[in-house]
Write a structure and sequence with these properties.
The protein is mainly α. Among the domains are: 40-194, P-loop containing nucleotide triphosphate hydrolases (Rossmann fold), CATH 3.40.50; 434-443 and 451-642, Tetratricopeptide repeat domain (Serine Threonine Protein Phosphatase 5, Tetratricopeptide repeat, Alpha Horseshoe); 818-895, Orthogonal Bundle (Arc Repressor Mutant, subunit A). Helices cover 63% and strands 6% of the residues. It is built from 48 helices and eleven strands. The strands form three sheets. It has a five-stranded parallel beta sheet with strand order 5-6-7-4-8, with helices on both faces. It has a three-stranded antiparallel beta sheet with strand order 1-2-3. The chain has a three-stranded antiparallel beta sheet with strand order 9-11-10. Strand 1 (2-4) and strand 2 (7-11) form a beta hairpin. Helix 18 (347-360) packs antiparallel against helix 19 and helix 35 packs parallel to helix 38 (701-713).
Length: 895
Amino acid sequence: MTATNGRLIVRGASGLGGSSGGTRVAVVPRPALLERLRAAARVTNVIAPAGSGKTYLLRAWVSQRELAGSAAWVSVRRGLRDPQRFWVALIDALRRTAAGAALLRPLTPAPEIDPWAILDSLLEVLGPLERPLWVVIDDLHELRSPAAHEQLEQLLTRAPAELRFILASRQSLRLGLHRLRLEGELTEIRFDDLRFTLEEARALFEAADVRISDRGLALLLERTEGWAAGLRLAALSLPGHPDPEGFAIEFSGSERTVAEYLLAEVLERQPEAVRRVLLRTSVLDRISGPLADLLADATGSEQLFRQLEDAGAFVVSLDARRSWFRYHRLFADLLGHELRRTAPDELPGLHAAAAGWLAEHGHPLEAVRHAQAAERWDLAARLLSEHWISLQLSGHAATAHELLAGFPADQLAADPELAALKAADELDRGSLRAAGRQLALVAARLESVPVRRRHRLQAMLALLRLSLARQRADFASVATAVQELLAATDGASTPRAQLGEDLRALALIGLGVAELWWLEPDEAERHLRQGVELAHRIERPFIEASGLAHLAMAARVRSYAVAADRSREAIELMRAHGWEHEPIAGVAYAVLGAALVWQGRASEAEPWLLRSERTLRSEAEPAAGVILQFARGGLALMQGAPDEALRAFQLAERLARMLVAPFRMPTAARAGQLQALIRMGELERAADALAMSERSERQGGELLVARAMLELARGRPREAAVALAPVLAYAAPVVNKRIWLTQAFVLEALAREALGEPGARRLALERALDLAEPDGVLWPFLLHATPALLERQRQERSAHPGLLAELLAALAMGGERGTAKPERLRDPLTESELRLLRYLPTRLTGAEIAAELQVSPNTVKTHTRHLYRKLGVRRRRSAVERARGLGLLAPPPYR
């Protein structure tokens, strides 16, 4: 590999321990790094492990900049300890530059030559430099002379401004560079900067005439962490390989070419004591000094790892204090391979010792993994059982599942504590029947658990029973489970006070969710809020977020606007902790998406429903799944896709059937299916399905609304009005009054209009507007109403002119609620100005508009003035015309 024109050139396998059998030439551009060198300060320090591409980068830079006549290149020989030889090499390199040839005379080593005198003379001779002269010192880590280091530090500090330095090393050296850093005269390039990108790796493989898929290349890039030598070694191994993808997956530090390189360049260059620490800590994913001391029977390991990191020996610190470290992946693979090859009998003991230390020092997850690796199943089971609830409450359910999967089947069957964990895992995945069987097994074997651990298991058993009952909406069982859980967490016998508070918060939230589905919204709100407040007080954000999501679900019974706000609050909390992909986030997404659907905001709702579908496990949260699928059906109806709506409502019904206490949810889902069939034109099919329903369901409000819709589609408005009468008289129960009752009044208005009864039509539609206005429930109007119907209502001095204007605008824009975004306005309208704008086409006075908006007349005047300025008009009529032209208001009224 050489350099030309600022790019790296790959020629076969030169210098990499093998031959590719060809000399195909290609280039690997690294323009970002070359630009950093171009803009670098007077001293540039390049520090990275062996094989990171330091030398190739610097040669490419020298070639690109055409510095052959003004760059002195010094490569330090391995283990150089003689300061004289270093200075001789440096001066010889300077003499090969144009400026140096004129200023410096040849110098050869001799006993009487004083390096300090050389330094003084060099500084004096180079003082008059008028043009930049670069000194590139490669492999500076090989200079082992403290005196030479001190002399070089003086050169860096005292050199004239036109003398520039680039130092390349595998480790940080004590050259007083901190002073240069403070003075802004130091540029640093490290391993992270030298890592190859995917594009650079692709160019490298193409240079070696190697064909590999994007997936395979991405895997190799991940395994090598962008290490240039690792990628080159992989490229050397791939030509002619029968399975490039498999090679990419398996590529590791034990692959022959990589192992030979790392052994020669890193491991074999370490003292025996260091090699022992490296090998015996290779069983760890991350390493601390005290833990390394324990495993290697050594002292001072933390300082050793700091030195190894400084030396570029493939060790990376993980925290600011540099107390935890990890190995580069390929180096870790090599160490593990060497340990298994040289001392396989030590592995179980090392894992067991690591498990004990990690458990004692508060790292239970790693402790469980090491206990499993040591096949200490009893220790692993105890650790996982003790920390399972904390894992769940911290949003680590996936990690808990992974750890549980690490136990043999016979252990899971024999250990009651593991059986309880298996039940929890089944619940998390929605396997409610399997969870119930596991819980029965735990209860039968509870007395076999040692007394000191039995209380914790009892608390966990109560929690799991509560979770199972809540997911099945089995209110009677929830009440019993709550009492069991509160009893298990009460008093001095609780294993941990914090754990008792955790479970108490969960009990309150579980009770609130059950009450929600039992249609006791006041009690549900009270218990959910208590659970959220307790979770916040004890700093359990995962429980708090779960409670907020279910509070949002409870709020939808009263207000979709409040439900949307609470959902966003829950989402923000989850996002802050990185839980936006957890199943509980799917509950909040579903509630928010549903609220937006019923408010007629289709384009806003769609992304949230998609997120919910990706994260929510409907089989584990069937109640939330019903909300999601019902909203999906409503959205599809609004978008003119009744076939999609039918499928969504059918799935909603199946999920509702999973609940012990589904109430009217299956009936509502079936009514949605009927509406979808009617929109599809399948009137006879809808009539047959309606006739096959149970009599009690046909008397419910949802199916009566669907019947009215069917009768209107058949051209029978009087029969529609008859079907609606019990609903409008509040004699037929409905699961959601704002959706179904508003629909009923809209359909009643259509029926009365068809019957030629304008007074009855006006009263019915006004009642529908009364129900919709407080919460912005526009879906029933967008689904059923016509612009002509709404315009007549507006001309007849409706009490809801703003809402009618918004509905007309939405229908004019294809049924999407909300006005078009005023992109063409230089200064967009605020929400307050948009609300005011909706009233301008009406005949209301400013004072009447103020009363509608519940603000003062002066506030209306202020908003009006700002609105006119932004629209570029002076009069109300002009503002209306301008807003209609921008799509901010509906077109002119129908005549």
